[in-house]
Structure formats: C-alpha cells, structure tokens
Amino acid sequence: MTPAELSRTVLRSVRGAVEERELSVPVPARIVVQPPPRPGCGDYASNVALQLAKPAGRPAREVAEILRKRLAGTAGIDRVEIAGPGFLNFTLGDGALVALVRDVLAQGTAYGDRSAGNRPVADLVSADPAPVDRVSTGPASVGRVSTGRASAGRPGPGARAAVVGEVLERIGAAAGRNGRVDGHPALVPVPDDLATLTARLGTDEARWILLRPAAHDPVRVPERPVQRESNPRFRVQYAHARTRALVRNAADLGFLSEPGGVGAPAAAGSGAEFRPAPASAHALHTLLAGHPSVVEAAARLRAPDRLVRHLEATADAFFRWHDDCPPLPVGEQKPLAVHRARLALAEAAGTVLANGLRLLGISAPEHL
Fold first, then answer.
1. DSSP letter string, 138-152
2. Which of 96, 174, 220, 245 is in Cβ range 3.0-4.6 Å of 76 for a Cys bridge?
3. Are 202 and 127 in contact (CB under 8 A)?
4. How would you class 187 by CB atoms within 10 Å of its CB: exposed for 0-12, middle for 13-18, buried for 19 or more?
5. Contact 342, 253 (CB under 8 A)
6. What angle do CA 176, 181, 187 make, to 5 degrees?
7. 37-67: string of b/e by CB count within 10 Å (b at 16+)?
8. pLDDT band for position 281 (cuts 50, 70, 90)
9. 291: which residues sit within 8 A by CB, 6+ positions away?
10. Residue 192 pLDDT level (bands cut at 50, 70, 90)
C-alpha cells in the first residue's frame, strides 16, 4: 500500500462515517498521511481526527476511535493505533511490503517517472553534465555559495543555477510536468567555473554538492571527493552498488529474487513459517513507497534537494535493514524463500536509488 492508497483508504473511512451519521462534518477533499515523526509509531501517521474534531464538535480522540474501528482489518493495514491528542498511526502488513516490491520491480526505470512510458529513458536520465551552451532555470533555483562569489575553484551562483535548472527539467518531466517547472523559464549560460568544479571533483561529486543544499543554504565545496561512507553521495552510490552485488552473488549461489516475506524463519513449534518483518524493513518500505511523491514534490516546490535527501535516507535505511536481514545465506546454509524475498527487496531499493540518481544526472555504478 502506497501513501496515496492509504490516504484514499482513510478518506473512504471518513466518507463512510459521514454517510452513516457517525460523524457530521464536511468530507475533506484529501487526507495527508506521512511517516511519523518518531520511530516506533507505525509506518504512517495522519492528523485527520484533529482536523475533524472542531467541525464534528467532539474530542479528537473520539473522532479517531470512530475512524480506527472502520479502518481495523482493512487489507494491507496490520494495526491502527491512536496516539497523543488524536493522531492515527498505521502499521502496514507484510502483504503491503510484498505488493510494493512486486510493483517496483515490474515498473523498473519507470517507477516514480510518469514520462518514462512516453519518452526514451535515456532522454530523461542521461548522466552527462549540463549542456555547455545554455540550460533552463529560474531565479528561485539559485542558491548561495559559501564565499558569495566564484574564486579559487569555488562555484559562483551561475554554476548552481545551471545544474539546478537542468535537474528541475528532468524532475519536472518525471513528475508529469512536461519538463516545465514554471511558466517562463530563463535560458542562462553555463559558467566556466562549473567546468572547473567538475574537472576538480568529477561530475558526480560536483553535481551532488550543488544540488544537496536547499535554495537558501550555502554550497560547501570539499577539497576533494571522499570515497567512503562518510560522504553522502558515495554512500548512496555504494548502497546501489551493494544491491547489484547481492544480485550477482545470489546468481552465483543459484537463486533469483521473488517478492515475499522478509522476516526471519519462525521458531520451531510456533505454527508460523516466518516471523513478521522487522521495523527496519517497514522503514525501508515507507521510503520506497514515497519515492514517486518525493519526485512530484521536488518538481512542484522547485527543490531538487528533497530528492537528494530522500536518496540519502533510503540508502541509510537499506544498510540498517541489510544488517538486520542479510539477503544471502550464511555459511553452509541453503537459500530459502526468505532469501529470495530479501533479495527482491534489495533489488527494489537499488531500483529506487538508481532512478533517483539518474534524475539528478549522477551515475548509478554497478561496481564500487
């Protein structure tokens, strides 16, 4: 179940409560669900009960309880809990995770990219730097650099405008906005200092450090690119390369991926084949499911840094889950169904990382 599907499910519960006169409120046009602010509070949360409490003339927790009863037992939702003054916290069932993995793998490069079915993917996700003559951008995309001007190998504002403008066109196309992020994009020349920065740091690192800060934040330029996990750009690329290595290693062991339950085998006599997926799997699921909405928000808000931060969070979640649930058999252990399922989740994570990197014009290497 994706965030959009969960939002529609909650909206249907509100509409049902109104139709059956459990609540007397105007039915909202849409309901926002998002990851909870703290770990351990489910996969998603919504403040819809707090929003409806005043027009309903009832306490928010009472409204939340009405909706909780309606949502309990819904396919794809394992638990619905009420927290604080009336927040609804949702924990999705393992079936939702399996369905998402199957969907990501089926869509491949088209996942999160509405235009991929209509245009060649290479047109949208080329890893080449911006064209050398001009690109489309706008004033809202230009951020500050830490020195305020171009000097000693540091980029001026034009370098950032060039890269951000090009990436916004890619993200806008992926979000179904025909590559246009505003009504009147301006054509600006690509400055010489962008070429200088790229020559010094390499295309991937140069683009990452220009895209990572929000528009109002300074660009901080390293002396040289660091090829270790302390570098967020390297960590994201390494996470993708790790997913591809898992696929190669699994092939060497004679098995392929198959979406399914990723929890550990259950204890003997428990009556179950596998224990439920751990929290780290659900955290990764939330990020993979949210990728299309992040791409859309990055285009709508003219903020490619949102996609950058999402990729960092996805890579970190992948490594945490990988440590909890190794996708490959250990020692003399034979591959089991759970290993095929974990490999499928790793493949799905790699797909999301690769799709996001390519929209930023940054390479997604198979080996590191």
1. -GGG--EETTSS--T
2. 96
3. no
4. exposed
5. no
6. 130
7. eeeebbbbbbbbbbbbbeebebebbebbbbb
8. confident
9. 111, 112, 310, 314, 352, 355, 356
10. low
